[in-house]
Amino acid sequence: MKLDKATIAALAEHLESAELQAFDVVKITDSHPEMDWDDAYAIQDEIRRRKLARGARIVGLKCGLTSRAKMKQMGVETPCFGFLADYFTVADGGEVKMSELVHPKVEPEIAFVLKRALKGPGCHVGAVLAATDFVMAGIEIIDSRYRDFKFDLKSVIADNCSSSRFVLGGCAVPVDDLDLRTLGVVMEKNGEAVAIGAGAAVLGHPAAAIAMLANHLGARGEEIPAGTMILSGGVTEAVAVKAGDHVSLRIQSLGSASVKFIE
Ligand code: OOG
Ligand code: MG
Is the CB–ligand 1 distance for residue 65 below 6 Å? Predict the structure, then answer.
């Protein structure tokens, strides 16, 4: 760790204020170039602690930057991990208020719900599939607090990996008879297909993203508890939205999910 406790607390307050009041900021490595990975996750943990202290609940975890398309779009090479708070939840077919966000984008994701805890090191795709209760179609609405979505990996980790809202579809499907690699993914904006892919775009197999999260937490002495919902990461590039847009996602065998954006 390179930053002291007071600096971590101040940066967490800075980034969380930007989230809650929907304003943008410059990436924090501009003013703190010395910060390391532990500092980045410590700032994210402090944002989580602030929300819990205010009475929010954590309702899931997420993996980000797990597909080539996303890594290329954002100019980074390594996945990141974040948390999902209760107020990020949007019902299937529900509305998201643009006024509450900075510059949201949508991405198609496969969501996992676990029936057993997962703990690294050494967690692999087989362990993830054995521990998975079911998978669902999910739309993640990301909203980097950084100006023009320009950041580096440490800055985005501190900013809880741009987490902001998410929608889950209504079908919960067991993985036993599914090949998650070859599931087709089609996301439409206002009736036009804007993102098309397959599950294998995420680290070769979406379950590999969940294994990576378990191994990341294992290195910190933590685990993914049974019952956790986890977004495995955008299959395609994220797509910008504006008020009036309607986004729908269909994933082969997993059904659909949709969301509308209003003023
Ligand atoms: C970081 C969050 C990435 C994903 O699924 O790749 C993410 C960002 O692109 O702003 O959620
Ligand atoms: Mg995502």
Answer: yes
